[in-house]
TrEMBL record:
Name of the featured protein: Carboxymethylenebutenolidase homolog
Keyword Cell inner membrane part of the UniProt annotation: no
Subcellular location: Cytoplasm, Cytosol
Limits of the Dienelactone hydrolase domain: 30-245
Gene source species: Ibidorhyncha struthersii
One cellular-component annotation, GO: cytosol
GO molecular function per UniProt: hydrolase activity
UniProt keyword Ubl conjugation present: no
A Pfam family per the record: DLH
Gene3D superfamilies: alpha/beta hydrolase
Length: 245
């Protein structure tokens, strides 16, 4: 649970036993996982990982799901070689660890990936999704990057960018009702600020009974009561991308 000794709830959830259908590539100074759809397309989605990094099977599963829905999906290592968080790490060191991995300082890497998608993959319409740390990164990019078309922020940590709400692109925010790390009052405040300041389409949706990480960190087979919401979250994400890409 999120408390003083455990400031992030991302260890709550399951790690999928999943190998992945894509391949690892080197894009300038960044390693990345890429999965392409069966048919050629000019639409791509950048997938931003959580604190467990670009190699987490769960995140690759989500990238493959995007590819199965017709998108070129790429999950770069936004920690750029720095170690991802491990569940065995001491949570007392988490804040110091996080200081060297700022969700608002990924612009250089995003530019490299955008160039790769455009020049090497033929992508013309590019969106972004992200989970937890990556969800916060999506909000950052939606506030400032002119080259992306849309974003989906899944349980992104609001406090990282809570004072800014003038989005450039249509953005979908997915939250869990029982997220110990993102109180519902923060979600309400975000919605109020978006209503006041946002000139583009946005949506904020809270999924009942769900906890942090439910879309990519819960297995339907051992959480049957959550299965409808896991599936709904994934379907909503795809529908949003379909609408704006």
């Amino acid at each position: 649970m999120a408390n003083e000794s455990r400031p992030c709830p991302c260890d709550i959830g399951d790690t999928f036993d999943y190998g992945g259908r894509g391949q690892e590539v080197q894009v300038e100074h960044i390693k990345a996982y890429v999965c392409k759809p069966p048919a050629s397309t000019d639409k791509a989605v950048i997938v931003i990982h959580d604190i467990f990094g670009w190699q987490l099977p769960n995140t690759r599963c989500m990238a493959d799901m995007l590819a199965a829905n017709g998108y070129i999906a790429i999950c770069p290592d936004f920690f750029v070689g720095q170690e991802a968080w491990k569940p065995s790490n001491d949570w007392a060191s988490f804040d110091d660890w996080l200081k060297t991995r700022n969700a608002g300082k990924i612009d250089k890497e995003v530019d490299v990936i955008l160039k790769y998608l455009s020049e090497q993959c033929g992508a013309k319409k590019i969106g972004v999704i992200g989970f937890c740390w990556g969800g916060a990164a999506v909000q950052h990019l939606m506030l400032k990057n002119p080259h992306l078309k849309t974003g989906v922020s899944l349980y992104g940590v609001i406090r990282f960018f809570e004072d800014r709400s003038s989005l450039l692109h249509p953005t979908f925010f997915i939250f869990a009702e029982k997220d110990d790390h993102i109180p519902l009052k923060q979600v309400t405040l975000l919605e109020q600020k978006l209503k006041q300041n946002c000139k583009v389409d946005y949506k904020v949706k809270i999924y009942p009974g769900q906890t942090h990480g439910f879309v990519h960190r819960k297995r339907e087979d051992i959480n049957p009561q959550d299965k409808p919401y896991i599936e709904e979250g994934r379907k909503d994400m795809i529908n949003w991308l379909n609408k704006y890409l």
